[in-house]
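Re: weekly structure request thread

Next one in the queue (221 aa):
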Amino acid sequence: MSAESAAKFNEKAANDFFFDTVGLPYGYHNFLYGWIDTANADWPPLLAQEFVPVMFTLVEDIKPTLAMNFFTSALNKRLGVEGKNIAEIAMLGAEQGMSVEDVMAMTEMDGWEYTGLEPTDGRNWVCSAYVAAIFKAGGLFDDMDIQSTEFATMDVYVLDLFDTTTPLPEQCVAADPNLPYCQLLGKYQVELPWYNTIKPYDHMFENCAINYPTYERTPGC
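Done, posted below.
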C-alpha cells in the first residue's frame, strides 16, 4: 500500500471482517453480476445479450436448483422477491419497464444474504470482490458508497492505493526489472493496464461498459 493508504487502513477492522466471513462459499450466486453492469454493453461481441437468460431458462427446465443458485437468486434480490423463476422475473421486470437484461444490470449490493447449495451460504463474493471488501472493511474507501461485490479483477488493481515509490525487493527486480509491481514467477509477463491510476469514488464500477476492443474504462462509471 501507499503511505497514505497504509496510514488510514484499519487492520483490526479488516481482520474482524475476515474472521466474520471465514467459511462462506465462493460467490457462485453472484459471480456473473460483478461484470454485468449494463443491459447491452458488457457482453463479448459475438454473444447476443439475450443468450444468458435464454440459456438459463433451458437449464431451469432440466435442473431448476442449478439455475436458481447460479443465475436467478440474484435477480430475485434485485426485485425484492424470493423464489421466482426466470419467466416470473421477466414479468415482474416488465411491470417496472425493465427487461431481464435490465434487471441483471442492477447493482449487486453488499450484505445480500443468499441461500442455496451450501449450508454456509450467506453473503457472496468472488475473489476480486472479496479483496475490495477487505479494503472497504479496513476503511480505504472512507464513507463512500461503494459495493465491493461489483468489483472485478481490473477494478481492484487500478485503484490508486498502491506504493509505487519504494524500490522493489531485489528478487522482484531480478525476475522482471521493467514492471512497477512484483512478479516472481511465470513464463509470461503479467500486464496490468492502468495499474494504480484511479482514486476511489462513490458508486465506482457499478455502470461500466466493456468498451471493446480497447476495454478502457468509461470515466466515472
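The first helix runs from residue 3 to 8. The chain has a mean pLDDT of 94.
Next request, please.
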